Queue: 3 jobs
Job 1
Amino acid sequence: MKKVISNILTALVYIFLFAPIVILLIFSFNESKSLSVFSNFSFRWYRELLKDRHTLEAVRNTLLLAASATVISTIMGTAAAWGIDRLRSRWYRGFMNTVTDIPMTNPDIITGISLMLMFVFVGRIFGARNSLNFWTMLIAHVTFCLPYVILQVLPKLQQIDKALPEAAMDLGCTQVGAFFKVELPEMMPGIVTGAIMAFTISMDDFVISYFTSGTGFETLPIRIYSMTKKTVTPKMYALATIIFFVTLSLLLINNFIDDKSTRKGGKKAKKAKKAKKD
């Protein structure tokens, strides 16, 4: 009886979570404009979406911003994680970990407002006419993407045997060579996972982007927000469906990398145990 109740409760939770997404997917293929009655299966609203120049421009801006923020935050986050891992003082390392967590725990609206005020203040000092533009959005996105990259790379660094880089240097590698040949391959699963997380978070962000965006640069979340002020059409459902499948694909890739890294770590642990027994 307990198992039956547990299964029913689990099913209800999943229905509650995924029923809105299923409805959205179904009505994105509705031929009519009705948002309550499904008439015929059609790709009409996907074709209409491809004809919407402003939405396609917002998609291009979003991908450009997300890709730029991902590259910068991945490089900076990897370097920061490497530096934190090399800290000898436990107190200082704990302090840096706390500072890293602040952008993640801080409400987005506080981060967005504070960044907007800072950009306007700096712009006034240098006499800029438009203080908010693509570059301010890029800085803002790098700011909130960095902690996610650091928190993905740092555990991989902590799993590396500290004797491996030293052994590589004993065999003739320089410190830089040991990093690229020994440490970087071990860090790569965390780097890729952090990059995927940074890309999805940057692409999805609305609150911080809304406060730090200028008039000449509109991202997709801001575009969707402006569309909701008017009549809601299935064209928005089609757009949300595409975003959902893109995010789902990135999530599957992320899980595949994590599983592969876990299996690889398990094999290394087994080999180490066998070597100790021998």
Job 2
Amino acid sequence: MEVCRLCPRECGVDRKSGKPGACGVSGEGVMAARAALHMWEEPCISGETGSGTVFFTGCPLRCVYCQNYELARGRAGKRITTERLSEVFLELETAGAANVNLVTPTHYTPEIVRAVKAAGKRGLSIPVVYNCSGYEKVETLELLEGTVDIYLTDFKYMDSDMAARYSKAPDYPEVAKAALGEMVRQTGGETAFNKDGMMTKGVIVRHLLLPGHLKNAKAVVKYLYESYGNQVYLSLMNQYTPLPQVRETFPELSRGVTRREYERLVDYALSLGVENGFIQEGETAKESFIPTFDGEGL
């Protein structure tokens, strides 16, 4: 943490000194804002008992339209030790969680590896899910080999201009391609489920359709299918919710996705031959789907 280069920003900040990195956080231990059962992930992740989500404070990508805007910018959460984090994992399993789901974990990778190892020595037996933006360094992901069972990753952009405008990351497409390749390598390109239909190993790639950006979405789906076929599961999401921070500066994002836009994306995926995936039905663009970051479970 003295010269932090865990994420592709490679800011080199001494986070231990109290100066925040590109992720927006600093200091010893980890910052998190919620640890609780979560029912709103893909069916094979949440199931009927819920996914044991731990929402970490800060984010290396920090998209302008982020649904967890305040959290991503380091404005919510409490500091806990690595030891406490391992206890949280065990408490989530005791509560019936189908898995431990690490949300925006990149900048805490070393602490997470230690916490999972410690929890494993005390009996943690449920899968570990790495739930990230896709903006990951291969070298950092390599630290997770043997720790993570399921990668639940975004693939946001094939358009560098979009990535620059909305995430200040024009290198996102190439970074995400390399990161996904490492995730697939670690899982062997295989997917496994238990008798209840819950995923125990594999890669799920999410794409959140943004209003007016169907061309980018199709390019993402095309790349994923042509590169990996049915080795990865696709999760096509229509739940984009326009929040106040975008309405003046990014007016093109001030509406939700239309049914027609989303149907065209799903039809395109099917036309390519995509078989393994998830789609969303009904009204999902609601702020009520955004958790309250009040320190629950920490």
Job 3
Amino acid sequence: MYKQSLSVVIPIYNDEEVINELLRRLTAVVETIVKEYEIILVDDGSRDRSWEIMQAERAQRDYLRIARLSRNFGQQNAIAAGLSLTTKDLIVLMDSDLQDRPEDIPVLIDALLAAPEATMAIAQWEKRKDSRIKLALSGLFQHVSNRITDIHTMPRLGIFRVMKKSVVEELRRFPEKTATAVSLLYYIGNKYVAVPLKRDARFAGKSGYNLSKMLALTFARIFSFSMFPIRIVTYLGALLCIGSMIAALGLIIYKLVGNVVTGWTSMMVLLLFLFGLNFAFLGVLGEYVGRIFLETKQRPNYIIEQVV
């Protein structure tokens, strides 16, 4: 039995079929490995009976804390809300669908405690029972993130992890509103150990991560931790500017040796040059506007309507 206390944070969205089994398996594990613990479920604006089931479970489990967001803010913001409620020494973060196996929590804790320099132990999936499309998109997301952002991670890492309390305390110091909680955990530079684990199939229901949400997550990481898109526009503008000058020179030569309608050459030269120059200027301005935008948006990422 570990001497540390334990918080388990799980975002919930339309999981009425899973909650009872999730808590049964999770409790069976946690109560045998630590003396002091809490389980925090965050309802991210579910449209089914998830909240009612969570309330019923809370009435029977004094270690269970449940929070309800005022609407659907997305999984990453629900995670941030749950982390803000934690009070224990070690924090477990996992999905609700039982693809992350509660029985693997001791494996992650052992790996974390065996590496004194590490602050996180993260599941690295040896095998995932997901669709080929989802696996391909997940791999693409990781590849793109490593190539064009400041965040570089090992392949096949999941949300499932154990963290020291200091990690969450450091996360709370970040005022950023556009970056996701999991991305910030990597950006902070916390040392972690990857633990090979197998991921089960979903216990019930369908994944809430459709293509649009996965793309939104990708864009959130790119635009929060990379100026690459704006720089691409800058480079493109510079290339267009150079290209327009070359084209302008060609048109002038053609004017001198050929028969061209009066005024057409000068008009095209001006259009091509100004068009390319405009893109270059927009790219430079975008560098500054993008940075200001990332730092000045201060709307809350989530609103907790109720905590029980």
